[in-house]
């Protein structure tokens, strides 16, 4: 939910609640005051009546010709001498309409007989008054609410404007680029503080990113050079010729180890580079076509292992990615499919516009298939393998939000790359 | 053939120089940017082998400077940096080859020889060694004056041997020369074996001598018996 929608909504609900409470309270207060007024008048009339009948022994309804204003009934038997008020409705005898009245009931002696006396007062005027006041209230409060709502909306938009500006700038910010994060100065202290903090964070991130990048490159350089030296020295030693079998064996071991270390170093560096998003050239790549190109480079191994390649690449699978990484991805997948294949096995290549599948024959996994794409999870006992190939594949897929699926349907292992369905 | 090796790692520079001297090249070493720049401005070299990362400068700059003085010098970059950008940049400013550390000295030697051949004869020359004659332009091989048909990899293998005569070559360096470093090593070593077997058979069939000797545990050596 957007900030403005949220504040507007809260404001709207709160003011509506207050509006209702105030409206109801106001209505009751007015009603109470009007009743109070009517009742005090009725009490006054009661006093007049009692005073009137005290001087006269009888009451004739005719004294009061106005209909039903005073109702006197003799009471026989017990009564509780109390004064009560109640609302009542009297039907007008001319046009049969009913009108609300307020009625006071009390007991008094007329002569010697106790009478129940009811005096009524029309409430029609008072109700009209209540209605008029309430209507005015509803109208004014409603207008006030709308005005306040519009005002606060405008205010919010104005106040949060620098915030949205900052947000847009941060969204545009790319720490892999050299451009610094430039944020506008606002007149609100909190936003300025936010800008300061963000600027500092952005600079720090860029600095860290650069130094990490430099470190990665330097580490590569620093490590590859001594390895190159070991290699070169071993090669020279081999040339000397007069080596015993033991020495040859040792040298071979040193040579192998240094080559493996170099590959390991290169693999880890590649992973770090992908993680640091240093491959940021993105172009549309037709993986299907590229796979066919890569296949040519592997034809020697394919022929050597007498592998039957079933090329079912028909539809192109396009992805927006770095061409260098696309090549590494396919190389690693093909290498994997060949390495774990048996002599005379099969490789099946399939593609649709939404996925690419490379399947190969091979023995069942010894380890957990879930951990297949982890670093240094080696299936083969081949000591030359460094165990980074598939984790590089996974890292590349993660970078481009691709889904990686592994299935095993004896004896076919398949790895499928597909576009991840958008979550939203 | 005069070659300048620009490399700040002393041991590596020494190894290269020793190896290339044995192959008949005259080598000089510069270990800093300043030294390299000075040498290049004073003397003429046929080829420059240059490391990109130097303590006091960048190898690319040496190349650019050299191109202004003497454009015909062959240039091979040796670098620990394995990025496509560096490779492309290197070729753009006029280098001929790019090798990533660690590399095989035999590979450097082969590439250096191929580069010098391309420079001197525009690639239109024949390579002759004993009874073996290779027409580089047409990629045709004659053994004892009989044409021998080799597969692409066998041809590459033969050229690699011819560039490294009398040198013990490791199986790994042969495999890398033929397939680069993207092919799984255990398979490629087997493949080296079968390609060598085929090459040897084809050459002997045409009446050539058996020049390929295997060295136990290490690899092969191409040498006159």
Structure keywords:
heterodimer; A: 424 residues; alpha+beta; Heat Shock Protein 90; 3 domains; five-stranded mixed sheet; four-stranded antiparallel sheet; 54% helix; elongated; B: 225 residues; alpha/beta; Rossmann fold; Arc Repressor Mutant, subunit A; 45% helix; 24% strand; globular
Briefly, what is this?
The complex is a heterodimer of chains A (424) and B (225). Chain A has 424 residues and is an alpha+beta fold. Chain A has 8 helices and 11 strands.
Describe the protein.
The complex is a heterodimer of chains A (424) and B (225). Chain A is of the alpha+beta class and 424 residues long. Chain A has three domains: 3-142, no CATH class; 189-275; 283-419, Histidine kinase-like ATPase, C-terminal domain (Heat Shock Protein 90). Chain A is 54% helix and 19% strand. Chain A is built from eight helices and eleven strands. In chain A, the strands form three sheets. Chain A has a five-stranded mixed sheet, with helices on one face. In chain A, α3 (189-239) runs antiparallel to α4 (245-275). Chain A is elongated, with a radius of gyration of 47 Å. With 225 residues, chain B is an alpha/beta fold. Chain B has two domains: 2-121, Response regulator (Rossmann fold, 3-Layer(aba) Sandwich), CATH 3.40.50.2300; 126-222, Winged helix-like DNA-binding domain superfamily/Winged helix DNA-binding domain (Arc Repressor Mutant, subunit A). Helices cover 45% and strands 24% of the residues of chain B. Chain B has eight helices and 14 strands. Chain B has helices at residues 10-22, 33-42, 59-69, 84-92, 105-121, 152-163, 171-179, 185-205, and strands at 2-6, 26-30, 47-51, 53-54, 57-58, 74-79, 97-100, 126-129, 132-135, 140-143, 146-148, 168-170, 212-215, 219-222. A five-stranded parallel sheet of chain B has the order 2-1-3-6-7, sandwiched between helices. In chain B, α2 packs parallel to α3, α6 (152-163) crosses α8 and α7 (171-179) crosses α8. The longest helix of chain B has 21 residues, at 185-205. Chain B is globular and about 55 Å long. The model of chain B has no long low-confidence stretch (mean pLDDT 88).
């Amino acid at each position: 939910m957007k900030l403005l929608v949220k504040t507007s909504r809260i404001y709207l609900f709160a003011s509506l609640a207050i509006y209702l409470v105030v409206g109801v309270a106001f209505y009751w207060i007015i009603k109470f005051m009007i009743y109070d007024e009517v009742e005090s008048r009725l009490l006054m009339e009661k006093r007049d009546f009692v005073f009137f009948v005290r001087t006269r022994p009888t009451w004739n309804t005719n004294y009061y010709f106005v209909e039903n204003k005073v109702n006197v009934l003799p009471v026989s038997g017990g009564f509780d001498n109390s004064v009560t008020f109640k609302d009542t409705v009297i039907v007008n005898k001319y046009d049969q309409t009913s009108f609300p009245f307020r009625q006071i009931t009390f007991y008094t002696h007329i002569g010697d007989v106790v009478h129940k006396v009811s005096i009524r007062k029309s409430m029609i005027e008072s109700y009209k008054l209540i209605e008029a006041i309430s209507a005015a209230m509803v109208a004014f409060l409603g207008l006030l609410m709308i005005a306040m709502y519009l005002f606060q909306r405008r205010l919010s938009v104005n106040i949060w404007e620098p915030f949205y500006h900052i947000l847009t700038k941060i969204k545009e910010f790319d720490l892999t680029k050299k451009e610094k994060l430039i944020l506008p100065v606002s007149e609100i202290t909190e936003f300025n503080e936010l800008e300061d903090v963000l600027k500092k964070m952005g600079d720090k991130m860029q600095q860290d990113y650069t130094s990490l990048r430099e470190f990665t490159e330097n580490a590569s350089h620093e490590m590859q050079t001594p390895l190159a030296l070991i290699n070169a020295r071993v090669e020279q030693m081999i040339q000397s010729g007069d080596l015993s079998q033991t020495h040859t064996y040792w040298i071979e071991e040193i040579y192998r180890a240094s080559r493996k270390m170099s590959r390991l170093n290169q693999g880890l560096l590649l992973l770090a580079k992908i993680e640091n998003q240093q491959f940021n050239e993105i172009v549309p790549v037709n993986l299907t076509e590229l796979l066919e190109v890569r296949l040519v480079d592997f034809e020697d191994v394919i022929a050597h292992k007498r592998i039957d390649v079933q090329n079912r690449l028909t539809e192109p699978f396009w992805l927006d990615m770095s061409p260098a990484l696309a090549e590494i991805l396919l190389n690693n997948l093909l290498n994997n499919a060949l390495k774990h294949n048996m002599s005379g096995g099969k490789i099946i290549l399939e593609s649709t516009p939404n996925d690419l599948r490379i399947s190969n024959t091979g023995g069942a996994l010894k380890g957990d298939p879930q951990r297949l794409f982890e670093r240094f999870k080696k299936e083969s006992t081949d000591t030359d393998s460094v165990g980074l190939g598939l984790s590089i594949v996974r890292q590349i897929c993660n970078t481009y939000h691709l889904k990686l699926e592994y299935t095993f349907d004896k004896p076919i292992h398949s790895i499928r790359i597909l576009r991840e369905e958008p979550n939203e | 053939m005069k070659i300048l090796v620009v490399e700040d790692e002393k041991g590596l520079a020494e190894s290269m120089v020793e190896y290339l001297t044995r192959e008949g090249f005259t080598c000089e070493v510069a270990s800093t940017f300043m030294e390299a720049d000075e040498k290049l401005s004073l003397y003429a070299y046929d080829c420059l082998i240059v490391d990109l990362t130097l303590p006091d400068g960048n190898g690319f700059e040496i190349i650019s400077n050299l191109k202004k003085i003497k454009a015909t010098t062959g240039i091979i970059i040796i670098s620990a940096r394995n990025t496509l950008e560096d490779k492309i940049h290197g070729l753009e400013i006029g280098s001929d080859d790019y090798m990533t550390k660690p590399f095989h000295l035999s590979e450097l030697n082969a590439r250096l020889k191929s580069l010098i051949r391309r420079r001197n004869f525009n690639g239109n020359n024949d390579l002759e060694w004993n009874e073996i004659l290779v027409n580089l332009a047409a990629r045709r091989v004659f053994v004892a004056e009989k044409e021998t048909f080799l597969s692409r990899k066998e041809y590459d293998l033969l050229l690699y041997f011819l560039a490294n005569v009398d040198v013990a070559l490791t199986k790994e360096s042969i495999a890398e020369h033929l397939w680069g470093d993207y092919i799984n090593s255990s398979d490629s070593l087997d493949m080296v074996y079968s390609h060598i077997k085929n090459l040897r058979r084809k050459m002997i069939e045409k009446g050539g001598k058996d020049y390929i000797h295997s060295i136990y545990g290490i690899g092969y050596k191409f040498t006159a018996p």
